[in-house]
Amino acid sequence: MEEVLVIGGAGFLGSHLVRMLREDGHPVRIMSRSAGIGKAPEPGIRYFRGETANDAVVNEAVQGVSVVFDLSFGDVSTRIGMERDFIGGARNIGNACLRHGVRRLIYTSTTAALELGKVGVIRDEDGTDLRAEERPGFYHIGKIGGEKLLYDLHRTKGLGVVVLRPAIIMGRGGKLIHSGIGTWRDSNRALVVGRGDHPLPFVLVEDVARAFVLAKDAPGIEGKGFNLVGDVRPSSRDMVRYIGDRSMRQFSLHTQNIYFLQALSLVKYMIKKIVGKDGDYPSWHGLKFERVIAQVDCSGAKKYLGWKPCSELETFLREAVDSHLRPIPRSDLRLEKPAPGEQLA
Known about the structure:
three-stranded mixed beta sheet
């Protein structure tokens, strides 16, 4: 079996991917900042410790493998850090793959790179958000930059790159209180922009990992990008209700009017200008993105990869919600059926 490299293989998605690759019989190399720390030796797994910004470490890890999965992360607190880790890291990985004849590089981008704030459907061929710089943060900008750099290496030097863009990943080993649902003011109260009743691009981690495995050998997909969103897409309002019902705890959702938020931001900006303080002009494009109202089409991944994500609500909830909950003891009063006219606390 081909030996493969998973950069970021110790993370949430990476650990699921490594497990699937090992189940398929592949020797796996894992590269990350903490690779191998506290791990007992395991047959079929080799560790390489370092960052993607370190060309020497990347070159050593890539040499001798047939396929590279890049699930790396990096500094998103500053533009300098983002450019070093995301852009520089992608360049190091792409060049190392070319240098050592790697047949396929599978790069992890994100649906945050898409224009999710617009009304309508986003397809694979629509590409990334052309106004991404107007949105706050550096993560999506770094991923867009990584995509562009690797696509350029594909066109100019024949790099066999495939780009996968997972959405809001849920499942075992991840988070139940996920920022994709909303902004959590505390452990059981979510705040969302808009009404919170539109479908969100959720996807189970097992489905994402399976898409990566399929992308390893799917024919004729070099130079293509695929969006990864599951077929079960609850809204923020739905998810808060599901979590509350299945945990038997009180969860609440609070909505915010997008026009009021923009007006409030403009007032704050004007006050800062009056008193002589610096501040960025409020981005309407960035605020619209917070609603995530676009629907993401994943027919490309289904057609070219043979991908079949979860399509049953109950299965989705078992993995996305129940896997994070402790069993409720039989003696718990919440399991008792309330008498007529009574209500459980």
